[in-house]
Design goal:
With about 230 residues, the chain is an alpha/beta fold. Helices cover about 35% and strands about 15% of the residues. It has seven helices and eight strands. Strands 1, 2, 3, 6, 7 and 8 form a six-stranded mixed β-sheet that branches. Strand 1, helix 2 and strand 2 (about 60) form a beta-alpha-beta unit. The longest helix has 19 residues, at about 125-140. The termini are far apart.
């Protein structure tokens, strides 16, 4: 297991700061206008900037939540999470990327919570597991999700959850109709294909048919379109 210290952390930041040209932040010192907001799962193995090859500041707005959830609970109702909504509402961002990932621990935790009611989690984690649980419950009842398939149940539910997050966003008046919603699953386990680190396109504005998705991408990216579910 990797270990670190305060000196190690400071050394990493020093290398980062020393590598930047003097004008690195010049264009974004006073304002931000990110091209996209990427809502990914909070997981150390999944770097949002790295997966989209982001080298410059200001291009990508990067909220992360347990289970790449785009919602929060407010007065007993689900609302679009503020970290997700902020760039849409205040910086004019028109592209949202919802990114699940293979082997998601949040999906596993929500599945375990449904199957083992006595499982205990800290309250701050439990809140997000509880918010995710209805999605998992719905997925288990969906005929497309099959526990007996060769592909693990968790990875099927990862994709189902990406679809559910997009469905929710489409139902919210806070999200303007001209915002594009792109759903991906980031694969570092060889579940969707044999290219580690590829983000596979699984949903565009609620469309999930692979032939329709393939028509929306350039020919060279056809292999980036893949779904586990029908």
């Amino acid at each position: 297991m990797p270990t670190t210290s305060l000196a190690d952390v400071l050394e990493r930041n020093a290398r980062h700061a020393d590598s930047l040209p003097a004008s690195f932040f010049e264009a974004v010192e006073q304002r931000q206008e990110p091209a996209a907001v990427s809502v990914c799962c909070a997981d150390s193995r999944v770097s949002q900037e790295a997966m989209w090859d982001v080298q410059e500041p200001g291009w990508l707005f990067t909220p992360s939540t347990i289970g790449n959830q785009v919602w929060d609970s407010h007065d007993g109702e689900r609302v679009v999470d503020g970290s997700v909504l902020y760039p849409i509402e205040y910086t004019g961002t028109k592209v949202m990327l919802i990114v699940g990932h293979t082997g998601c621990g949040a999906i596993s935790a929500a599945l375990d919570a449904l199957q083992e009611s006595d499982a205990e989690t800290p309250a701050g984690v439990g809140k997000w597991v509880d918010l995710l649980a209805p999605v998992i419950e719905s997925g288990l009842a969906d005929a497309r999700v099959d526990p007996d398939r060769e592909v693990s149940l968790v990875n099927q539910l990862v994709e189902y959850n990406v679809d559910a997050q997009i469905d929710f966003l489409q139902s919210q008046t806070d999200i303007p109709a001209d915002v594009s919603l792109f759903g991906f699953v980031y694969d570092f386990q060889g579940i969707y294909g044999d290219v580690p680190g590829r983000a596979y396109l699984v949903n565009v504005d609620g469309e999930t048919a692979t032939d329709a998705l393939e028509r929306q991408v350039p020919d060279r990216f056809r292999s980036h379109v893949e779904r586990l579910l029908g």
